[in-house]
Amino acid sequence: MTKHYVAEPYKIKVIEPISVTTKAERERFIAEAGYNTFLLRSNQCMIDLLTDSGTTAMSDNQWAGMMLGDEAYAGSRNFLHLQEVVREYYGFRHIVPTHQGRGAENLLSMIMIKPGDCVPGNMYFTTTRAHQERNGATFVDIIVDEAHDSQLDLPFKGNVDLSKLERLIAEVGAERIPYLCLAVTVNLAGGQPVSMANMRAVHKLCAAHGIKVMYDATRCIENAYFIKTREEGYADVTIAAILKEMMSYADGCTMSGKKDCLVNIGGFLCMNDEELYQKASELVVLFEGMPSYGGMAGRDMEAMARGIVESVDYNYIHHRVAQCRYLADKLDEAGIPVVKPTGGHAVFIDARAFLPHVAQDRFPAQTLAAELYVESGVRAMERGIVSAGRNRETGDHHRPKLELVRLTLPRRVYTYAHLDTVAEACIAVYKRRGRIAGLEMIHEPKVLRFFTARFQPLVDLAKTKARQPADIEKDDVSAQYRPAVLR
After folding, report:
1. Domain of 409: which CATH number?
2. Which spans of this chain does the record mark as coiled coil (predicted)?
3. Of 296, 311, 326, the domain-final residue
4. Are 113 and 200 within one domain?
5. Does residue 61 sit in helix, strand or coil?
């Protein structure tokens, strides 16, 4: 059966040349970057799938809006436009602009968390958990167990397990839970969505205990699309209407506008509660800027307002998800293990299944991302043990069940031909996977280490010939490797 992938619902007006490098150059570049793709320069990458954060191609309408920037220090008309659009499409009474999503996370954590609190959520996210822990809270994962199995093909693997939430409330008391952080979608589970029914049930349970629900709304448009295409009763409902209903089950949200608001910088914190708004307005002056601009220029707020309107267009989001599905199908057909079902912003390769002979302490996802870059110039991101960081109490690594490489698709940037190149590179690495050893961490930052950690490769001292995957003993191969000397 022939699969159909919708054509781009836009035409290309401006182009940006991309770099084409040799393999020898890439081997040098990745070594200089400490085998961390975050430390590569953009001009060293041919196809950059590191992130979809701030890498959007803005529309002609957004660029036109940039020329209407009102850069007043207070009371910018662009803020008033953004406020109007957020109220219309998201439904929240108050908006506090920030320079990006983590600025909103910082404000939310500071105004709501007390030392000793617990913040439940449907799987951690790196910066979110860092802000929660910095303010004295403990993150508690309450996502459904199925989310930790990359091969289970279920429509809403981002759902909250209500029984886990009820047990947590009974164990610690509602007074120690300042809010529930609900990510829509769940990035580190592979971009998995939350069903409307689950959002409704979570809101009802939390309301009964006086617990606020705050969304990480970064990719809420993708979540709305999956509700439309996967959940009964929503096939004929518009993306805008689904989004508005989703937000009605929350007391507020953090937003990184660099994703589903289709801009290169900016974010905001929303809430309905007047007291929380006053607290956030006071703190934003200290950390970001005036409450009417936060960390954003007027022109950026105008681009964001227009981007929000564009984001609910079905043709846009349908094509975006189709591109992800196209790449995932290419890899799946080649036997490469990818997270199922495909999410809306990226394709996630299961690095544990790809490199079963590389122990998790040898950073298989980090290794695979580096190998993919050397093979092709495609830059991807590790989402596994490195991203998870360390347990604050024991000092040991957090050991997530999912050890993934994220191939993140920027919005409206690449074509299907680019994705063919990515697929070919992944397949080439997969064919030589038996010769890939792993990495050792040689520099480890204390906070959010995945951004700037440095590594060195492990080499097989016993033999150098290629080994076939079928010949690899999963339990003892990684012990054969020793740190390579960087030259």
Report:
1. 3.90.1150.10
2. none
3. 311
4. yes
5. helix
Instruction: Using the 3D structure, point to which of 279, 311, 343 is the last residue of a domain.
Output: 311
For 415, list phi and psi in degrees, rounded to 5: -105, 175
CA 196, 128, 93, 69 dihedral sign is: negative
Cα–Cα distance measured from residue 9 to residue 6, given in angstroms and rounded to the nearest whole number: 8
166-205 per-position pLDDT tens digit: 999 999 999 999 999 999 999 999 999 999 999 999 999 9
Whether residue 79 lies in the annotated active site? no
Cα separation, 373 vs 380, whole angstroms:
7
Catalytic (active site) residue 73: yes
Q: Is the dihedral of CA 230, 5, 416, 430 positive or negative?
A: positive
Is 412 among the catalytic positions? no
Residue 386 shares a structural domain with residue 278: no
Q: Which domain holds residue 33?
A: 23-52+314-483
392 pLDDT band (50/70/90 cuts)? confident
Q: Is 465 annotated in the active site? A: no
Rounded Cα–Cα distance for residues 257 and 254 (Å): 9
Annotated active-site residue 450? The verdict is: yes
Task: Kindly state whether residues 283 and 318 are assigned to the same domain.
Answer: no
Give 178's Cβ-side CA count (13 Å radius). Answer: 20
In a domain, 106, yes or no: yes
Tens digit of pLDDT for each residue in 403-446? 999 999 999 999 999 999 999 999 999 999 999 999 999 999 98
- Give the total number of structural domains in the chain: 2
Tokens encoding 360 = 């998790």
pTM over 0.85: yes
Residue 402 lies in a domain: yes
306: Cα within 13 Å, side-chain hemisphere = 20
Encoded amino acid at 423, one letter:
A
pLDDT digits (tens, 9 = 90+) for 10-67: 999 999 999 999 999 999 999 999 999 999 999 999 999 999 999 999 999 999 999 9
Apex 262 CA angle, 337 and 160, nearest 5: 50
Q: Could you say which of 354, 450, 455, 481 is catalytic?
A: 450
- Cα distances (Å, whole numbers) of residue 119 to 17, 63, 174, 248, 320: 45, 39, 11, 21, 32
316 is catalytic: no
